[in-house]
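The pair is quoted verbatim as follows:
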Amino acid sequence: MEVDDLEWQARHNGGVPPRLVNLLLEQGQLELLIRVAAERGEWFCAEAAARELCRAGEFKRALAVMEPFVEVGWRLARWASADILLQEGRAQEALDLVRPDDVTQEPENVCRNFAELLVKAGQVDEAIAVLAPRLDRAWLLSALVELTEGQDRDERILELIAPKAQQAGSARAEGRWSFDASNAQELQAQVLERAGRVDEAVQVLGADIAAGRFLTQNTLVAYAELLQRHGRIEDLRALGTGEHAHTALPHYAKALEDRGQAEEAEAVLRQFIDSAEYPDRVRWPLIDLLSRQGRIDEAVEVGRPTFDYHDACLLESIIHLLFETGRLDDAMAILDERDAEFIEEHPSWFHTNRLWLLGEAGRHEEALAYAATLPSDLYGLTASIAWLLEQSGHVEEALALLRSPADVPTWEVAELLIKQGRAAEAITNMPSISELHAASRRRDAATRATRGPNDPPF
């Protein structure tokens, strides 16, 4: 086990990825996860196994799972062990395990994690002190609000947020569009709201919105959601039908629907779609409303004008809506309406979705025959054919197909084996972490070798 390999796992979901770990847990394979973590150095297996052991109250076993990872110096294992100690009631040991020598010199993510641990240990004021000097960063400001919810510190949090909210409110006029703590105004309203000061939250944030003293659309959305949560229908009407209608109208319409005024909600959405220069942002809220009423055909027609768009296209969303309502033939019909130009521009999306719909409809032979007509190098085709073979009961053929091309990730073979109840075989046949990491490095090197001098560095 080496830290370099662990770093690679964390960055790339390498080894046994979380998707497979969750599948193993669903099948009750906790002991296998513990063994694989120890024998192969699989971090995601260790992390999930420790979590499950803690839920069962087996804290010493959870710490034992983490121990080899801690010994090699893996930082995430140290934090996980601290959390286990905390759950066991050993708060001081937990804090001592990860306490920075000088918190002012630590990276931001370390400060955030340590603050969270302090809150869990009941040391809320100490957590606030850790974060307070770093509130010029939006994500740490959000962390402060999140970690202190329900901790009876709202007045102190408001004191810390107020100057940031004031700066955010004046940044636009001063031309400081890159002001990082641009979420301060909405967070201030959030804390006021949770402190029971709803009128003040609406008044303060509403004044900034009305005067244009905000930087991002998220702030506008937060205000609309605040009005919607508290039934401020008149304020929401003004916001949703004024200059900010593109953003706020869906919230106004949903508020009307929630009040039993679905017809009026539908009317305002349709009026906007018919009259606005750029109406497509509110098409999906209308589709949602119609689908909740069982009016699926009308919902499809609302989305249809966007089906050939490059942006704001609702074709995939409508396909999934029809699938979820059991109308697979209708979904297939809409897909088959696409012209040759559309298919040429979106070959993988079109063909793999068509195979998926045929498979879900139980038309496996037809789907496999269709797949045979497609270019063999089509992205996603191998996985689609393997899925069809699995669905039709040809598991060994599916496995053979997945094992044949070099570009199919090894976890796809393992996933199919796990689904078939062959979990131990699935893990045994996976390459080691060092082998997977080495293969990843080779792929990265090959990509760099083929990159032109003007290509972006990713």
About this structure: The two ends are 28 Å apart (CA to CA). The chain has a mean pLDDT of 94. Residues 338-432 form a domain with the Serine Threonine Protein Phosphatase 5, Tetratricopeptide repeat fold (CATH 1.25.40). The first helix runs from residue 3 to 12.
